[in-house]
Amino acid sequence: MATASDTVAPAGADSTERVFPQDFLWGTATAAYQIEGAADTDGRTPSIWDTFSRTPGKVRNGDTGDIATDHYHRWREDVRIMADLGVGAYRFSLSWPRVQPTGRGPSVQKGLDFYRRLADELLAKGIQPVATLYHWDLPQELEDAGGWPERETALRFSEYAALAAEALGDRVRTWITLNEPWCSAFLGYASGVHAPGRTDQVASLRAAHHLNLGHGMAVQALRAQLPADAKVSVTLNLHHVRALTDRSQDVDAARRIDGVANRVFTGPMLRGAYPEDVLRDTAHLTDWAFVQDGDTGTIRQPLDFLGVNYYSPTLVSAASGEGSKRSDGHGASEFSPWPGGDDVAFHVPQGPTTAMGWAVDPSGLYELLMRVKQDFPRLPVMITENGAAFDDYVSPEGEVRDPERIAYLHGHLSAVHRAIQDGADVRGYFLWSLLDNFEWGYGYSKRFGTVYVDYPTQRRIPKSSARWYARVARGGVLPPAAERG
């Protein structure tokens, strides 16, 4: 946590090149529901996002992921694009209902064959496959049985992890259990702006615990199946929480949001216990009796690195009274995704913003990495997502120029480089995202890709940021700011 007055300037001077470590891993990332399409192909059954997106009023313009960017049929073309970018790794997610349609029982070989072919093609092009087991697409049948608020879902996740590792462990040597469990728990079960769209703060805390438990059990299942040299991790969207002022009320507001944003996951995963202040702040909602003896020991498993997603800082204060503006950047809802934080106000920082309305602030990434270094000094870090949405369009010449995205990436990579110089053990960077895609509740209205997708034709057009990132990834050198374009 920090106060707004504590922020630092973006990293370094802009007149010199920044050389990254020789073994630094340069990658890009996607998620299954956002790109694959083929929603009912080869045995795949609905996930909670299929159900949610097909529910009127839940997703902008009524968009769904039924077709998305048709990656299920165009994966060879997409791998060629990655090879042209010169990236060394590709982080993708497995679709749980494509691999294990009901969330129980045997796997579907046709679904696994898709990921086998994808991994083989990546390896043939010299690109490391990095598989995320869960990027929010819970099989609908498991949600019908209670979803993540129920302990059974964690058990089912462990079984699914074992199936995936057995099928793909000879090809995929880097695995991530969960992507951003904060979103799954609190946007899915508290504010309802993500699937499954429930609005129950107690259920969201139960979901957070069972996501934690599912992570720990999945790590155990992966380790039992994978070769000894395989790497296993989790990806957290750690919030860099700043207090608006140094008033004690605002600092305490930041502490509470930091607790339910970050430490409710890092506590059990990396320290083996839930923080006492988080339990105290939420005691009016639940007594946490769903945490059984031995759970935190199961959750705390050795990790090879910590995946960190960062887009923008979170600026908070104590609420000033009735009607205080809530602007937490996580979608409009009358229900809060912050159990225990009902009297906290969220603020949009001053300065430039992306098309999502998120502040462009690389200093937040630097400060976050230095906090991880301080709190968990022996744990390496991978930036598993970082990027920005802007209002991209195809010019009359057929080009997509996105200088704002290049500036965003330059600033954030400068922050990563500075953190490395200051002792942070950052091993790699995955740009979000390879392709424009289905952006959850925003549908196709927001474009995060470095490759433009014309959705009616599925034509891919690399943006100027793709060419820029290719030069950085191939050389491992960040050019001076004057050379961004």
Q: Please state the second-level CATH architecture.
A: Alpha-Beta Barrel
What is the overall silhouette? globular
Assembly level: single chain
* Tally of helical segments: 15
Approximately how much helix is present in the residues?
25-40%
Number of E-state strands: 16
- In whole angstroms, how far apart are the ends? 34 Å
Q: Are there runs of 5+ residues with pLDDT below 50, and where?
A: 3-13
The major sheet is characterized as:
8 strands, parallel, barrel
Mean pLDDT reading: 95
The largest beta-sheet arranges its strands as 3-4-5-6-7-9-12-13
- Structural category is alpha/beta
CATH class: Alpha Beta
Counting structural domains, the number is: 1
Into which percentage range does the β-strand content fall?
5-15%
CATH superfamily: Glycosidases
CATH fold-level assignment: TIM Barrel
Structure overview:
By secondary structure, this protein is of the alpha/beta class. The chain has helices at residues 32-35, 48-53, 71-85, 96-99, 109-124, 140-144, 151-168, 181-189, 201-225, 248-271, 276-281, 295-299, 362-375, 403-421, 464-475; strands at residues 2-3, 18-19, 25-29, 89-93, 128-134, 174-179, 231-236, 241-243, 306-309, 314-318, 344-347, 381-386, 426-432, 451-454, 459-462, 477-478. The chain has an eight-stranded parallel barrel, surrounded by four helices. The protein has a four-stranded mixed β-sheet with strand order 1-8-10-11, with helices on one face. Helix 14 links the parallel strand 12 and strand 13. It holds the Pfam family Glyco_hydro_1. This is Beta-glucosidase.
